[in-house]
């Protein structure tokens, strides 16, 4: 667990997911820096509660599978995480956990944790193709976003995100219509990726529906993330895709590839189409 | 809710998911007919607890998203479902639910329900391609399985499953190595598909790792299912795929297409590779 006494030298990500044991729970503070519009980014909430789960499971430090249901919008301010172990085995442990602000549940999750360093490393048979992106100096940086976006979504200033120029037309009213957005990704302060930060990374890209010309907010119904390996240091590549827009909903699949071409995280969320 | 007094005319699926209110909970019986090896099929457990959630949410009859963590193997015999509402809104409701046998939790889920009949029907922009299968009389039926398989897994006798002949080589020791298994699917008694039976259908095919030559049991870490529309009557087409076998784990994506070429359900599970 990250202790508050180390805060001075921490990256902003580590500082902001810092939690403190309090009775059976863990308390911390949601920083406004992770806000998108009226609420704190869902992926950041996952990293925050994920840090509490990590603290509750000393022998199982890494998220392997996390399924999240967002019950009400989280806001800047104090937050409390409660973790309830359901099964603690040798290789994995499964818990239920809630994130509350006051009496309001913001987020409820089920999660299985383990020690990814103890998982096999010699059995990689991935047939998925790594996310292919132009060199970073040919991509479109998130720093080009208008000031009004930066104020509406300070979240977007917590990382460098360099978009594939073929998949960022939505920013100028010319979406590709394919349902795909890809980008290079690195946390602010050059903070290296780890399993906890991957929980945020899978929800960091804009809604894939932007690329279909649907520019509104797309509330998440459910998000499940699988962390498949400890990421190597360096830039990540992220990709959102959707293949089934229908019935007022869409699925959004995220892949996260590390600098060694390993598929280190996959997620799928079901979200509501913008009205 | 299906009442026990109707059992005489029910399909075996409806008979076996029948639950009865008892205090705040719902009770029923896991039938040995849904067993695979030492435990009751996970998808059937989802339909069973899914029926209890349906009963607890009269205004939100259909599963939309269900995330399941299997805590211990369910066995034939009495079972009890407890459902705890977290948020009941106009369009959707979110609950936590547990399935217990005696004091042992078998399955814990988070789920969002709604009324799929009230979701839009004129916005289908699915780019996924329907599962393509040869005509049913050119496929390989599950009834050809050896008697030892039928006894080990009576579950496989609860439905007709007609496999794509190009993806069933594993049954004779010649897996394709592609990581894909597809089949036609229909419940016994010609019971038509509905949102509850789709929760079972997404976990009905053999583990996709069979097609990679890994023939053992693959325990599920996490399974999330999205029901995207009420299925039309008739045969379903199911497909399992995996693209990231690594670290002792694999993801298994299921698609369920109905007789009108609508992608009615998607699921992803994270499972452990056979040892």
What's the short story on this structure?
The structure is a homodimer of 275-residue chains. By secondary structure, chain A is mainly beta.
Give an overview in words.
2 copies of one chain form a homodimer. Chain A contains 4 helices and 16 strands. The longest helix of chain A is centred in the first third of the chain and has 15 residues, at 42-56. In chain A, the strands form 2 sheets. In chain A, strands 1, 2, 5, 6, 7, 8, 9, 10, 11, 12, 13, 14, 15 and 16 form a 14-stranded antiparallel β-sheet that branches. Chain A has 2 domains: 1-116, Acyl-CoA thioesterase, double hotdog domain (Porin, Beta Barrel); 132-275, Porin, CATH 2.40.160.210. Residues 1-5 of chain A have low confidence and may be disordered. The first copy, chain A, is mostly beta strands. Chain A starts with 11 loop residues before the first helix and ends with a strand. The first copy, chain A, is globular. Helices cover 12% and strands 38% of the residues of chain A. The interface between A and B is large, with 48 and 48 residues. Chains A, B: Residues 137-272 form the Acyl-CoA thioesterase-like C-terminal domain. Chains A, B: Pfam families: 4HBT_3, 4HBT_3C.
Low-confidence stretches of chain A: 1-5
Largest sheet of chain A: 14 strands, antiparallel
Shape label of chain A: globular
Strand content of chain A: 35-45%
Largest interface: A-B, 48 and 48 residues
Q: In the CATH scheme, what's the topology name of the largest domain in chain A? A: Porin
Give me the oligomer status.
Answer: homodimer
The averaged pLDDT of chain A comes out at 95
């Amino acid at each position: 667990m990250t202790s508050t006494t180390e805060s001075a030298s921490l990256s902003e990500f580590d500082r902001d997911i810092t939690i403190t044991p309090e009775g059976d729970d863990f308390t911390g503070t949601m920083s406004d820096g992770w806000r998108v519009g009226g609420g704190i980014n869902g992926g950041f909430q996952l990293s925050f509660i994920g840090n509490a789960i990590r603290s509750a499971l000393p022998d199982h430090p890494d998220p392997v599978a996390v399924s999240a249901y967002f019950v009400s919008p989280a806001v800047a301010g104090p937050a409390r995480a409660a973790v309830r172990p359901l099964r603690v085995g040798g290789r994995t442990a499964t818990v239920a956990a809630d994130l509350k602000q006051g009496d309001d549940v913001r987020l409820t999750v089920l999660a299985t944790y383990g020690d990814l360093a103890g998982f096999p490393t010699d059995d990689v048979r991935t047939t998925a193709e790594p996310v292919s992106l132009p060199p970073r100096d040919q991509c479109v940086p998130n720093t080009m976003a208008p000031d009004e976006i930066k104020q509406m979504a300070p979240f977007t200033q917590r990382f460098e995100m360099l978009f594939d120029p073929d998949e960022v037309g939505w920013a100028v009213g010319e979406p590709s219509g394919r349902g795909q957005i890809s980008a290079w990704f690195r946390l602010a302060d050059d903070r290296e990726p780890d399993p906890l930060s991957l929980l945020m990374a899978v929800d960091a890209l804009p809604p894939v529906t932007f690329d279909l010309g649907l520019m509104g907010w797309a509330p998440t119904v459910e998000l499940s993330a699988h962390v498949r390996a400890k990421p190597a240091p360096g830039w990540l590549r992220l990709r959102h895709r959707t293949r089934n827009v229908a019935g007022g909903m869409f699925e959004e699949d995220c892949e996260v590839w590390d600098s060694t071409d390993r598929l280190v995280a996959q997620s799928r969320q079901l979200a509501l189409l913008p009205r």
